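Name: Cobalamin biosynthesis protein CbiM
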Amino acid sequence: MHISEGVLSGPVLLGGAALAVGGTAVGLKSIDYDRIMSVAILSAAFFIASLIHVPIGPANGHLILGGLLGVVLGWAAFPSILVALTLQAVLFQYGGLTVLGVNTFNMAAPAVACFYVFRPMLAKSGPNRFAAAFACGFLAMLLSAVLTAGALALSGDEFREAAQVLLVAHLPIMVVEGLVTAFTYSFLAKVKPEVLTC
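Structure predicted for Cobalamin biosynthesis protein CbiM:
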């Protein structure tokens, strides 16, 4: 779901950059010394997961693990995703440096939203935890796709069709993202519950 260089309009680029800077500033303030390792590990997981592209019709899709990053890291998802996207842009030319702010916001803002929506449900053990974790992963991917499609649509009428294709192409990946988040969160809750305390 990386938007490439030269696609977005100036106002969209500036707006995305400003929102990403604000989110990253809040995220950096929320990281204490004891959580640096969790941020680094999840940043690496995001980096690897979003490198694996699966062709879906005319588009490519990939996991982003936004829901998992959100419920584990909260606001720290912003700097975590920013670092991973910067490395992808520099090393593999995914996305680009001028669109880094928009891409970061499109993936990190849904993660933070899921933190606030699903964190209370996931804190309680019980049969609903798996369903809540699935919904968290699914919704984070859905919101990221909507934000990415919105950024494309705001940049010109010629991108509206591409925005629609992007949104529809990611529907199957949303299900996979939900399942990965649900199983991973359930596993961490059993073997390493202290990682999940934000």
